[in-house]
From TrEMBL:
Ranges where the Lipid/polyisoprenoid-binding YceI-like domain occurs: 13-170
Higher taxonomy: Bacteria, Bacillati, Actinomycetota, Actinomycetes, Micromonosporales
Superkingdom of source: Bacteria
Organism: Paractinoplanes bogorensis
InterPro entries associated with the record: Lipid/polyisoprenoid-bd_YceI, TTHA0802/YceI-like_sf
Family listed: Belongs to the UPF0312 family.
Protein name (record): YceI family protein
Amino acid sequence: MTTQMHNTLRPGTYTIDTARSACRLTATHTFGLKPVAATVDLRGGTITVAGDLAASTASAVLDAGTFRSDDERRNKDIAGRKFFDAAQHPTIAFRSTGCRRGEEGWLLDGVLRVRGHDSDVTLAIEVARSTPDGCHVVATGVIDRIAAGITAGRALIARPVRVVLDLHAC
C-alpha cells in the first residue's frame, strides 16, 4: 500500500489524543490454532511533521498494565512478571530514529522499549492525513517479541506480533 503523505499533512507538532487512538496487537499460538487479538491503551505521545517529511518524528507511550484480549487469565499473565511485568515496567515506549521513503511508501524506524529492553522496529505508514483538528496516522508493523525482550511462552505464542497504531493527534 502506498502512503499518501506528500501533500496531505500540515507541518507541526501534534499531541496524540489517547481517547480517540488505539494500539491493536495480533499474534497466533505457535501451533496456529487460534489468533489472539488484543489492545493496549496509549498514555500519550507526539507526532512532528516536518516540511521535509524525512525529518518527521514520532513517539508513543503505552500502558503495559492495560493489555486486553478475550481471556481475562491471559490478560493478567501478559501484564504479569513473565511477560510485560507492568508492576516494574509500567510503560512500553516507542521513539522514532528516522523517517524514510520505501518502495511501498513511508517507513518510520525507531526503538521500542519493553521491560527496560530496547529493540529496533520499523513501522509502515499506511495512512497520514491532516484532519480539521490535527492529523490521523495509521502505522503498522511486525515485532519479534523475543527480540523485544518478551521471551516467556515460547511454546505457546509465535514470535511475530502484528501491531496497528491508529493515531489521532491534535
